[in-house]
Write the structure tokens for this entry.
Amino acid sequence: MKYRKIDEAQRGAYLADYVYTYPLKSRYDFDMSRNGVKLISTDVVNIYIHVPFCKKKCSFCTLFSTFNASNDTMLEYAKALIEEIRAFFTKNHMENKILDSIYFGGGTPTSLPTFCIEQIVDEIHKYIKFSEAIEISIETTPTDIDLDYLQALKVAGINRISIGVQSLQNNELLKIHRADNIEKIMETIVNVKKCGFYNINTDLIYGLPEQTQESWIDTLQKIIDLGVTTVTMYPLVKKNNLRYDDTCMMTQDKYLAYDLALELLKENKYEQFTFVSFSKCKNGCRHEESFFAGNSTIGFGAGARSYFENVHYCNNNTSGKHASEIIKEYLQNDYSTSVESVMLNPIEKKNKKVLLGLLLTGQGAYIEDFDKDLGQYLLKNKLAYVEQEYIKLTDKGLKYSSTIADVMINDIFCKD
């Protein structure tokens, strides 16, 4: 069957990885000198800063990060970030662009001292105009921050905090090797609010070892009761390097967990933006929304990816290398050498716009650019609807959007 994966997903038998970009990194097939390719940017841009340091590696994490780095290494890394930012904007003048968001991701960016965060923001501001409503967001874990650190983040310009909570059940936290406990997590959220941060996100995972539908909803209800404005919830996806016991939810149970969470979030006035993100405030994650809307993203830091209209690239060749080796290479870089990249031809540019538009609620994909056969299938199965020449996903379609995106990338776009 042509759309077997989507059919299996609707039966609760298949769940694809969350898709957030196109082309996938597996397509990065050549080295690119940034001096040799002119970067074509949108008028509005975003910046992503990758900080790959953590105190420990969580069992579910597949992101590029390392743990137990020395203070000297982290300070050297912050200095390298500033040098890379300076080098990039010296070669690529963007005085006429508007910066919509800065996102410090990781790893755990709050591993860095706050003065480093402030220096990085100040350096960026030298070269590009900030939007009046710029979002400057940072990821953290509850064990990393206290009131003094949070107050210093405010001074540095941070206005959105994203906390890696994952669960509010101590037995589940132990299973995934988190250093946190319920009391510390809840204290941290209270402190973030006390310091005047209005836009607060919590990352949650459903499908964890020993997690039940009841414990999952209990976690979500506690987050809602704490007044968190944005919730990002990911299904646990077992990958080859992750080992879990048989107490993890089956795929059909993850879909049920999604349904229960969706009902609870809607009851509490959270609006859905993508498969994973929900918010009670407008622009709950401006960085993500701006990216899905097609605006360019400039990535700084080891392993960071950049997304321009004509090219996507990664700062380092990361294939088969240990994180510490990649960081060492980054610290020795002159920020103009070859990187992994993929050039986008006109068809891939169209495909990217179609895919990201479909995955962002309220935007949709222009129906004339959409695969007609897939469009008919989605409409017939009530996974999508048409509004003013755009095809948009229904609530049911959003539930299976990762699998729909998987089919678009691997079964449709590959034929173009």
About this structure: Residues 209 and 248 are 4 Å apart (CA to CA). The mean pLDDT is 91. The chain is about 35% helix and 20% strand. The first strand starts at residue 30 and ends at 33.
